[in-house]
Design goal:
- The protein is of the alpha/beta class and 345 residues long.
- The protein has two domains: 149 residues, ATPase, nucleotide binding domain (Nucleotidyltransferase, domain 5); 178 residues, 2-Layer Sandwich (Nucleotidyltransferase, domain 5).
- It contains twelve helices and 13 strands.
- The strands form three sheets. It has a five-stranded mixed beta sheet. It has a five-stranded mixed beta sheet with strand order 11-10-9-12-13, sandwiched between helices.
- The longest helix has 25 residues.
- It starts with 5 loop residues before the first helix and ends in a 10-residue tail after the last helix.
């Protein structure tokens, strides 16, 4: 592994103090993404590997470790100078039992991680939900910096949510706090993968957009260009393909995106009415690709549906950290002195 010299690593240190570095790893259904940052939250190195079709925990762990090592190499930081690692996974986490409760995209259910990760990392670490870590990153280092209460929504295949109040992640009694994608906004609506009907995801996430486009094309005979940009759109559709079809003023895609923005605005209004947040951060690939459309449309719907003009002084913000949000949030979490007693050892 390439290592920068001790002099180079510590050139900005005061009175020769040793600089520490921190790693964050974002484990997703399609990719594993790692960053190494310094104490100021500046990213020094990144690495990415494909998750792959085989998602047994032992196989994924090997890829996690390889991705982490690659990020260290990219940063030029000696792994020994990283005192702690933050790991984010697409699941709620039972911290007391040290269990990954349910990561459907990886096929993990009630997975005990403590002993395996302690042996693998050989240093203190933390594991949390990926969106919690993304919102935590935005709260401290991104769009939500300076606000006391921040709710984040990340739009992708599904919709993840997280809530940070006064620096603390609100996880809930059963660790399901913030799951905005599974709040019901249409009674008797379409069946969600979670088993309920009318969840926000069934309208506003990519899965909901695909359902709507199928209905318009297959049942109502509408014509769409989406197949030109995403041949396999019926199974999965990329954000860039949606943007290209939108720019062509594809009627079906435009309507699907309008429905999504409208529903997200309703969800944002509900968050304002129930939690009284100061700021709402919206992120995810679809929003990044079409921010000039999405953000004003969400804001309009949010103000329309908020009770008693409750949205007037609430900041609606686009994510600043992009793909780095989750991994950077995980790294920042393990860096904070007040979080040290929460780390697994």
């Amino acid at each position: 592994m390439f290592e920068i010299s001790e002099e180079e690593r510590n050139e900005d240190n005061v009175e020769g103090e040793i600089m520490h570095y921190y790693a964050g790893i974002d484990v997703g259904g399609t990719k594993i993404y790692a960053v190494v940052m310094n104490e100021e939250g500046q990213i020094l190195g990144r690495a990415k590997v494909k998750t792959g079709a085989k998602t047994d925990f032992d196989i994924i762990l090997e890829k996690i470790l390889a991705c982490y090592q690659n990020a260290c190499q990219d940063s030029g930081v000696n792994e020994a100078d990283i005192p702690a690692i933050g790991l984010a996974v697409p699941s709620s986490i039972d911290r007391v039992q040290r269990v990954i409760k349910h990561a459907p995209n990886l096929g993990w259910i009630n997975l005990k991680f403590s002993e395996t990760l302690t042996t693998a990392f050989k240093k203190p670490f933390f594991v949390d939900n990926d969106v919690n870590m993304g919102v935590f990153g935005e709260y401290h280092l991104g769009a939500g910096k300076g606000y006391k209460s921040v709710y984040g929504m990340f739009v992708g295949t599904g919709i993840g949510g997280g809530y940070v109040f006064d620096g603390q992640i609100v996880r809930g009694v059963n660790y399901t706090g913030g799951e905005i994608g599974h709040t019901i906004i249409k009674m008797g609506g379409l069946r969600c993968k979670c088993g309920n009907r009318g969840c926000l995801e069934t309208i506003a996430a990519k899965v909901g957009m695909i359902r709507y486009m199928k209905k318009q094309i297959d049942r109502r005979g509408k014509v769409s260009s989406i197949g030109k940009f995403a041949p396999d759109w019926r199974q999965s559709v990329g954000s860039s393909a949606l943007r290209k079809a939108f720019q062509k003023r594809d009627e079906v895609v435009v309507k699907a995106l309008k429905r999504s923005a409208h529903a997200i605005g309703i969800a944002a209004a509900n968050v304002i009415s129930t939690a009284g947040v100061e700021a709402i951060v919206i992120g995810g690939g679809v929003v990044e690709e079409l921010s000039s459309f999405f953000m004003p449309a969400i804001k309009k719907s949010m103000h329309k549906h908020a009770f008693a003009e409750g949205a007037n002084d609430v900041a609606l913000l686009q994510s600043k950290l992009g793909d780095d949000a989750v991994a950077l949030g995980a790294a920042w979490f393990v860096r904070l002195p007040e979080k040290q007693d929460m780390l697994f050892r």
